[in-house]
Amino acid sequence: MEKTKSNPKTRLAKPAWLKRRLPVGGDYEAVRTLLEKQGLHSVCQEARCPNIWECYARKTATFLIMGPACTRNCRFCAVEQGPKGPPDPAEAERVADAVKALGLRYVVITSVTRDDLPDGGAAHFARTIETTRKRNPGICVEVLIPDFQGDAHALGTVLDTSPDVLNHNLETVARLYPRVRPEADYGRSLELLRRSQSHAPGIPTKSGLMLGLGETAEEVREALNDLRRAGCAMLTLGQYLQPSRDHLEVSRFVPPEAFDAWRKEALDMGVSEAAGGPFVRSSYHAREHYEAMGR
Ligand code: SF4
Q: Residue 290 is inside which H or E element, if any?
């Protein structure tokens, strides 16, 4: 799908609650340099996450493997398109080393979507999880995976390495899929979460939605219900922010108290843990989110 530039005249002004001070000091530069030296990518940087200053300063990052380019063309995402060649088999070692150097106890590993690979990159994910574990005994690993085009075997390959959390984002409501994620499928993503629960019921599943893309309250409620029915244990809800003029415009800025209300509603529906707020992202404070489940 061709990207059209948004019109600055129709762009909404950012509300006060989205303006915040950057943290001073911390380990931002150390994390950035380490990733660069190791030839690694983070989704924090590639997706232009608004929390990068905070997370790097706290010495956390979400590793983006098999990247930095993606085979899909989601209209909300800043990651570049068009991966070149097979994944680097040595990347797993470098991720494991970086996790050690950062002294992480909890790591989130994600990837670009690699529809060009026969297994969607599942074996590379598995190798990265296993190598990271081997070099960092006691580490908790959360994986944020693509849909593997519905390939149950690929999902099984990842689950058989027993990640501590299996995360797959629904991102938006069913109606907006063709506009927001033209190459993805709402039902396929829910099916992945369901399959994960039946293949490995001991591994909690997690998913996330962005608000502010044009969804209605009723559609959000329906998506939350679908996620609960798919066995999703952990949920994140955050504000969509337009990464550049080439991406979809924000349809509305959701106030913090509305996120609180959605969070409460999700918990009332039976989701075990929910985080919601303008700056909440899939991997934001992931360790704290996991520990809140009593793990
Ligand atoms: S919220 Fe996640 S993606 Fe964003 S900077 Fe933090 S760790 Fe990176």
A: helix 286-291
User: Cα-flanking dihedrals φ and ψ of residue 194, to 5°?
Assistant: -65, -45
Ligand 1 nearest atom to the CA of residue 61, by list position: 7
CB neighbourhood size of 194 (10 A) = 16
User: Is the CB–ligand 1 distance for residue 283 below 6 Å?
Assistant: yes
All domains of the chain in start order, with CATH:
19-291 (3.20.20.70)
pLDDT tens track for 121-140: 999 999 999 999 999 999 99
Pocket test for ligand 1, best of 27, 42, 49 (most atoms within 8 A of CB): 49
CB 212 within 8 A of CB 252: yes
CB atoms within 10 A of CB 137: 6
Q: Is 241 in the pocket of ligand 1 (CB under 6 A)?
A: no
Angle at which helix 91-102 crosses helix 28-37, to 10 degrees, equals 160
Q: Is ligand 1 within 6 A of the CB of residue 52?
A: yes
Any ligand 1 atom below 6 A from CB of 271 = no
Beta bridge partners of 106: 140
Q: What is the pLDDT of residues 2-58, one digit of tens each?
A: 455 677 777 889 999 999 877 767 789 999 999 999 999 999 999 999 999 999 999
